[in-house]
Amino acid sequence: MSVSASLPRREGAVVLGAAVRTLGAFPSGWRVEGAHRDPAGDPQALKRLAKEAERAHLDYLFFGDWLSGNLELEFTDPYLLARIDPLSAVGFLASSTSRIGLIATVNTSYSDPFAVARTAASLDHLSGGRFGLNLAVGAEPRADANHAPTSPGANRHEVAAEYLAVLTGLWDSWADDAVVADAERGALIDRSKISPIDHDGRHFRVAGPALGLRPVQGHVPIVHADVSPRAREFAAEYAELHIVSPAGLREGVQLVRDIHAAVAAHGREADSVTVVVPLLPVVAETREAAWRLYDRLVELVPVDEGVGRGGGDALPGLPPHRTAAAIRRFVGVPLLDRELDDPVSLSDAERFNAAGQRLIETVRRRSGRVPGGPRATDYRHLLVAHLFPAPLVVGSATDVADHIETWFRAGAADGFTVQSAYLHEQFEAFTRQVVPVLVERGLFRADYGSKTLRGHLGSARPEWTPRPARPREADRRVAASASAFDGVVGLRAL
User: Fold this and answer.
1) For a Cys staple, 284 with which of 37, 106, 196, 289, CB 3.0–4.6 Å?
2) Any binding-site annotation on 65?
3) Which positions are annotated as binding FMN (predicted)?
């Protein structure tokens, strides 16, 4: 069965989004010939990527974030070393796109819900209802050093839940029809349709109302990542899109079942949360060509080329344990004379511990290399597989489409957030080679069937409901604040 141009997502189509990493999702990707590698050129790279993603009818672009500086990112995740702020990136792309969803990350531990509610509603209007908000809740010492102190870790999801209550309260503080624009009577608004929220909680105190219209989508769709028990419960109660990272197909099937059960336990339709997993495809015309490309990516990963004694030409700041000695210790075999480019013999492989056996299988899936084979596994490939346990699928367009179909039909994922090893060749290999195969198989729609991110996800728009009357104490608090502000009325327009 083919997918019609207007097929709703819930009628059998895979959700496909792209995680934006302009310097690539594989740490050595930016070093490949022709790859985008200068962050100063990110504006042009973002426009090209967004245009290509929309041409392929992808559901969304996802902008993650990291709120601390760490020079080691040069070797582990170069994009995070120097990247454009996610909210700024979404605002930049809103006017140059028309259908694709645009998701930005905000951390509830380091941001103000009143300001974020306003920005999110504004971006939803500027994009015509295509904005999504990924609420991150994590905190870590290096980020703490750049921001005000955060709540203890045990309270972060509690803080996030209250943060979200403030967001939705502010978005609902204006009714959809609050603006009447009656020029004849001189009435711009219907005052009965705008109300403060008077939130006075454990972590936030916000009077409201919002400083603008209700979002086009009613509430901006909420995205949440991570699979910890608390994260799963948070997503089950509040999110429209949940990003998880199962270790394999079987774990993915069980995880999706558990998430849907948790969603139902919160009184929602079990499938009202779209569960997506990350995917990093390395695509070429043939499987063998993709293997060669992956070999090149492995070759370009900076490592200490010495024989495990720091004697190589290691780059300044290179993380430790990027040596032949490190991988030998990890697989449990003290083969002191083995170097990174030495092949793994069958006799060596038989002595590997369980972790080493898993690495051998990972290398086989990624590169077709096996111990003692014509394409022999070497210690460099083992080291890179250990350093970067990303969800890679290396092969032809058919190979990648097969993987997507297998996971989707097994119920291990509703969709995928695709990462690219580097821009732009690898992203365009996915959109121009893999996506058409999925469309041909009836797994992905041939055109956009909706205009909003909620529509792409098959998520209903929340109806507006009037808020209860304010308590008198809240009236006095708001009046006092207004009186104090009257003295600077001349500054309001600045």
Assistant:
1) 289
2) yes
3) 65, 105, 228
